[in-house]
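Archive entry: two folds, one per protein. Generate the first.
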Amino acid sequence: MVDPKKLVANHHFNHRPMLSIEFPSGNGIGQVRSMAKIYAAFASRAEVLGLKECTLKELHNPAISPQEGYYDHVNCMNIAYSLGFWKPFSGLKFGRSESAFGHPGAGGSFCFADPDEKLGYAYAMNKHGFGMANEPRELALRKAVYDCL
């Protein structure tokens, strides 16, 4: 048994004791190719997901600002959420419009669906970065992808 006090997430994401913890907001691990595939299905409204049209429509809608604003006290930054996904807003742009939705991961990884381009995007790095939004390596790749469209 590993001492839970010694499980500092940033250093132990790929170790079995960390992966065995049921921690849905913090240790969701997946293959980048698979993440891009699921977000591509979201972006193209693929029936394989089995989502109702009203759910897909809601995912594409812009986020509604909370009364207190977009500041997230857990992440210590402004974030727009809708149905558990991050949405673009004035403080964080991704995708071609406000219909995009996705979520970052630790160290700079980021995945999202861009329904306007029918694009599923996923990025993960070999070396853990700092921060969650607009990590410079991810941002450069995202810009290059959109420059190619």
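Generate the second and append.
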Amino acid sequence: MTTPSGTAPRRTAPWVPAPAYFGISAIFHYLGPAVAVLLFARVDVLGVVWLRIASAAVVFAVWRRPWRLVRRLKPEQRRVLLGLGVVLAAMNATFYLAIARLPLATVGAIEFLGTIVLAAIGVRSGHNVIALVLAVGGVVALTDIQLAGEPFGFVFAFVNCALFMLYVVLGHRIANTGAGLSGIDQLGAAMLIAAVVATPFCIGAAAPAFTSPAALLAGASVGICSSVIPYVTDQLAMARLRRDTFALMLSILPAVATLIGIVVLTQVPTIQELTGIALIAGGVSVHQEPRESKEN
């Protein structure tokens, strides 16, 4: 039986804490774009989008063979997968078009605005109001958004924000479909749909990579780091967390980006950045799931 969005999800692999899945997703969420930005110098932005989606689709096709699901899905479930596939294609395209014009931190902060809405929808207690305020304050402190740069960059960033909200809603739905249907298999089917949707618009821009093994390898790395590992671990986390809880935990992403900067790029954070990390950690620790979610 399908679990209504926002209600208690079914439990999977209880010996693995849901935050562990989310932590893996958060780390790879930034490794992928880092490689993608380097690729922009050799391949057009939409070409990198196609390489990301297509390579992820190949991985899911070989690993999960998601087309076997078709006969088992109800018409409504097929519509959800179709919608998720279109969202994945459009979301990846607008995200890359945005980061090609604006700093990654700014795009990430705008993207987080949508998750704030999803988290706010599920707020039912004083603890969760405090958690949301702390998380938002932490993101603002970390990113220090300044509305400067190319106007089209902000257009793409805000469109990506709306699409990311849809990804969380639809992703949470397939993660909790039940009836023996794997959320990862459904994700794989949606990724194949995303590849079909993106190909007419993006494959031409990817043509320069076809003659460069290094570019193809980099594109495959982007796909695995950005669309396989994080999306799979998102499914594992979504199957354990309420939608609003998952949305709030997304506020950790800017903090993870800062920590990766310290470890990988030796970028020492400022006092303001450290304050932002502390606020976000505090928000996530204060947040509480409703009692009924813990009983199911």
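Annotation attached to the second fold: Residues 1-12, 292-296 have pLDDT under 50 and may be disordered. Residues 213-238 form the longest helix (26 residues).
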